[in-house]
Write a structure and sequence with these properties.
The protein has helices at residues 16-27, 68-73, 106-114, 118-142, 153-167, 171-182, 185-192, 196-203, 219-225, 246-258, 301-307, 316-323, 364-377, 422-440, 444-447, 456-463, 515-526; strands spanning 6-12, 32-35, 47-51, 54-57, 83-85, 90-93, 99-102, 230-231, 234-235, 239-241, 262-264, 269-275, 278-284, 289-297, 331-338, 357-360, 384-388, 403-410, 448-454, 499-501. With 530 residues, it is of the alpha/beta class. The strands form 5 sheets. Strands 1, 2, 11, 12, 13, 14 and 20 form a 7-stranded mixed β-sheet that branches. A 7-stranded mixed β-sheet has the order 7-6-16-17-18-15-19, sandwiched between helices. Strands 3-4 form a two-stranded antiparallel sheet. The two termini are 17 Å apart.
């Protein structure tokens, strides 16, 4: 029998990717322990009561990228997880009474788009079809470790396989992919559509968790990343987990425990243990040491390599890469407890639009100005906001007559000018956000009876999200695929033998997908290391 503190694998961090990785390892017969700093597993995908009788997803707030095979393998639906589709996809009101509602049904969406542009309505299905073809291809690439472009014969053959897969895309889809990878979201959308509302509704995905304008090169990929998932078999659709995002990670934790995984909460790791150039375990903050054949890190790679291990244990180029790993999604999260439903000036009556992702950014130009404003003043005075009202879909979140609102806000960079701290700026930023929301939903501020706010600094403190980055690192081309987290280490095995990266800082990147955890577990199981 192994010693009590000796495991086959230790997982640092009990977020969704850490739990997924632990599950697959345990299912294969490995003895696994998950070490979570907080009092409950789940990482940023947790649900809390933030005002008496009002609960909501705390940070991560919507379902759309979680891999179907992860749901099936972990039997999450069998364990009671219920996911419901949004009744509509996106609702985009303007400040002058216009609006656009994109439905889950294509024909209904085209009818709505035609009210603004018949040409856009005609082209919209073509755009979705080509985008869908790309999403399927990239979804396949997301499910395996990227080959090393300067690796050996096996990597060369894998590169050829991936190239042949992309070659099967049609000419239109290939042209679209080229624009998405090399250009900006605005460049793509301006070339395809004429309605500012439609361009803004589609372009919102390009700025989610990205500290960059939709006019910036590279923003096209961020848009693409947000559409390669599916919910309940509907590709590109988004949904809500009944009970909030914590319902997902609590079901994952139960699936892990059913496989024999030990989950230790309130167990923050202070450093890695090394011996003869190999990772052999961890030291907890209270001084306890735990040993394992392998260690999986479900945390930001910058935090892992700059805080938990000495630079001397790393190749110089890799240490430099991690010291300069770009983290700053410029995101602020708010939850509001409301005593009544908001009424939007553009569509004041209740309807399916209240169950959509409500995008408060009426044009790509507005998104660009919001980003520029954040560069000049510290944050956007008229930010890009997505509001969700999950209590319209899930009545377990609020008492009768009450509602909860999730606000995801861009652009709020981690570092403020003039040496200011977010603890000092929080109230002013919240004021600006609510002022902007009030423009679209007059009277909303009067219905707020409670709130929960996470600035980028709060996200770092509470969830360990370095610089508040919700993706564990910028989703730019220099930090993607085989370059995530560094060239030569895209296969989840880090420079220190025995150490693996199983979080969103690894391929395929951010969002609640479970794929970095699943892919890393496969790499750990395939390893021949002692």
């Amino acid at each position: 029998m192994p010693a009590p503190d000796r495991y086959d694998a230790l997982i640092i961090g009990g977020g969704h990717n850490g739990l997924v990785c632990a599950f697959y390892l345990a299912r294969a017969g490995r003895r696994v322990c998950v070490l979570e700093a907080h009092h409950t597993p789940g990482g940023a995908a947790v649900t809390e009561e933030f005002h008496p009788a009002y609960r909501n997803s705390v940070a991560s707030y919507t379902v759309g990228l979680l891999a179907p095979e992860v749901i099936e393998d972990m039997a999450l639906h069998t364990d009671g997880l219920e996911i419901r589709l949004r009744p509509a996809a996106n609702f985009l009101p303007t400040t002058d009474g216009q609006s656009l509602l994109l439905h889950n049904d294509l024909d209904a969406s085209c009818e709505e788009i035609a009210q603004h542009s018949q040409a856009d309505a005609d082209h919209y299905p073509v755009y979705l079809r080509e985008l869908g073809e790309i999403a399927v291809a990239l979804g396949e690439l997301a499910r395996r470790a990227p080959p090393d472009p300067v690796g050996g014969v096996g990597d060369s053959l894998a590169l050829l396989r991936d190239a042949l897969r992309l070659r099967r895309l049609g000419r239109g889809a290939m042209e679209l992919l080229g624009t998405l990878l090399g250009g900006s979201a605005a460049q793509l959308l301006e070339s395809r559509f004429e309605s500012p509302l439609l361009k803004a509704a589609l372009g919102f995905d390009a700025v989610v968790g990205s500290n960059a304008s939709p006019m910036a090169s590279g923003s096209g990929y961020v848009l693409l990343h947000h559409v390669f998932g599916e919910t309940l078999g509907v590709r590109g659709a988004w949904g809500h987990a009944v009970g909030g995002m914590g319902a997902i990670t609590q079901a994952m934790a139960r699936a892990c425990e059913a496989q024999g995984v030990s989950i230790r909460c309130e167990s923050p790791v202070s450093s890695l243990l090394t011996e003869q150039g190999r990772c052999i375990g961890v030291r907890l903050r209270d001084g306890e040491t735990l040993h394992a054949r392998q260690v999986g890190a479900a945390i930001n790679p910058r935090a892992l390599f700059t805080q938990l291990m000495p630079d001397t244990a790393l190749p110089e180029a890799f240490a430099r890469r991690m010291a300069n790993w770009r983290c700053d999604s410029a995101s602020l999260r708010m939850n509001l407890a409301l005593d009544s439903l908001p009424r939007f000036a553009a569509r004041p009556e209740a309807g399916t639009h209240l169950g959509a992702g409500i995008v408060l950014a009426p044009s790509l130009e507005h998104m660009d100005r919001a980003w520029l404003e954040s560069r000049l003043y510290g944050w956007s005075r008229r930010p890009v906001v997505e509001m969700l009202l999950p209590s319209t879909i899930d009545d377990t979140l609020a008492p009768a007559g009450g509602h909860v609102a999730s606000l995801f806000c861009q652009f709020f960079p981690y570092e403020l000018p003039d040496g200011r701290c977010w603890d000092e700026a929080r109230d002013a930023a919240v004021h600006d956000i609510l002022e902007w929301v009030e423009v679209f939903a007059p009277g909303l501020r009067g219905s707020v009876i409670g709130q929960q706010v996470f600035t980028p600094l709060d996200l770092e403190r509470r969830f360990g999200l370095t610089h508040g980055d919700i993706f564990h690192g910028a989703m730019s081309l220099d930090q993607l695929w085989a370059m995530r987290p560094a060239l030569g280490y895209g296969d989840y095995q880090m420079p220190l033998p025995g150490l693996y990266l199983c979080a969103s800082g690894a391929h395929p990147g951010g969002g609640v997908t479970g794929l970095p955890g699943r892919n890393a577990a496969r790499a750990m199981l395939a390893s021949r290391s002692p």
